[in-house]
Design goal:
By secondary structure, the protein is an alpha+beta fold. It has 2 domains: 144 residues, RNA Cap, Translation Initiation Factor Eif4e (2-Layer Sandwich); 102 residues, 2-Layer Sandwich (Alpha-Beta Plaits). Helices cover 32% and strands 34% of the residues. Helix 1 packs across helix 2. The protein is elongated, with a radius of gyration of 22 Å.
C-alpha cells in the first residue's frame, strides 16, 4: 500500500487505508487515504507533491468509478506503485467528476515522471498528466486528504454497521444505542450532560470527579443504526462545544 522510512533508512509499508465520501466543487467525491501515514508525516526527503491526474473511460453518472472499470483502475494503481517504488510515498487517491487523482510525495520530479511514464505504457488508451508543487509540511495530505473529525467518525460508523450486518442485524429497527464521551474538566462534563439530556438522551453512568483518571459520561437513546451518521454528527457538535472527545457507540444485534 504505502511507505515510510524506518530507523534503518529503508522504506516500509503501512496497511491502514480507508475511504470516505464528500463533495468537492459541488460534485460527489471519494477519497481513499493512508490513515497510518499521519504518525509518520512528513517523511524527510519527500517534499515534492506529485499528482497523477487520470481520466476514467467509463465512470458512473455521478462521476465516480464504475464496476466495469474497477479491475483496470486497480491494475493501474498496482502498476504505478510497483514502478514508482521508493521514489515516492503514495498517500491517497481522489475519485470525482470522471477522473482519478493519485497523490504521491516524491524525492524529485524527473525520477517520478520516468516511473509514471513506464507504468502507463501498459495503459496507452488512458489520458493522464502529472502536476507537482513543493509541500514540505505535507499540508495537502494532513489538511485535505486526511479526513476531518466528522468524516473519521463516519468511517468508524461504517465499520460498526458492516459488523452488525454480518451478524444479520436489521439496521432499520430502533434500539438502545450506547455512547461515551470524555472531558477534561468536571465543569465541561456537567455542561455536556445538560445539553445531551435536552437532545433526548438518558444518562447511564458518569464520573465527574476532578482528578480522576478519566472524566466521562455514558449516555443512550433509542435510534435506528441506519441513521447513526446523523446521530453522531449531533453528538460531535455538542462534544466539541464542551472540549470533549467522543469515544464511539455500540448496540445489540437486532434481527427482524
Amino acid at each position: 500500500m504505502s511507505w515510510f522510512l524506518n530507523f534503518a533508512g529503508k522504506v516500509t509499508k503501512t496497511d491502514d487505508w480507508d475511504f470516505y465520501f464528500l463533495r468537492l466543487d459541488d460534485k460527489l467525491a471519494s477519497i481513499f487515504v493512508d490513515m497510518g501515514r499521519k504518525a509518520h508525516a512528513p517523511v524527510p526527503g519527500f517534499s515534492l507533491l506529485c499528482t497523477l491526474h487520470l481520466t476514467m473511460q467509463n465512470p458512473q453518472a455521478d462521476g465516480l468509478s464504475s464496476q466495469d472499470e474497477y479491475e483496470t483502475l486497480n491494475h493501474i494503481e498496482d502498476t504505478l506503485e510497483k514502478q514508482i517504488g521508493n521514489k515516492a510515498v503514495y498517500v491517497g487517491r481522489i475519485t470525482t467528476d470522471g477522473r482519478r487523482d493519485f497523490v504521491f510525495y516524491a524525492k524529485d520530479l524527473n525520477s517520478f515522471s520516468k516511473a509514471v511514464n513506464a507504468a502507463m505504457k501498459a495503459f496507452a488508451t488512458y489520458a493522464y498528466e502529472v502536476n507537482r508543487r513543493h509541500d514540505e509540511k505535507w499540508s495537502i495530505y494532513k489538511d485535505f486528504l486526511y479526513p476531518s473529525r466528522n468524516n473519521r467518525q463516519g468511517m468508524m460508523n461504517r465499520r460498526v454497521l458492516e459488523s452488525l450486518e454480518t451478524h444479520g442485524d436489521d439496521l432499520t429497527i430502533p434500539r438502545k444505542v450506547d455512547h461515551r464521551a470524555y472531558f477534561e474538566t468536571r465543569t465541561d462534563a456537567e455542561a455536556f450532560t445538560t445539553g445531551i439530556k435536552a437532545l433526548g438522551f438518558a444518562i447511564e453512568t458518569s464520573n465527574h470527579q476532578q482528578g480522576e483518571a478519566a472524566i466521562y459520561v455514558d449516555f443512550c437513546r433509542p435510534d435506528a443504526p441506519e441513521h447513526i451518521n446523523d446521530v453522531t454528527a449531533e453528538i460531535l457538535s455538542l462534544v466539541a462545544v464542551h472540549n470533549g472527545e467522543y469515544d464511539g457507540w455500540g448496540c445489540e444485534v437486532t434481527k427482524a
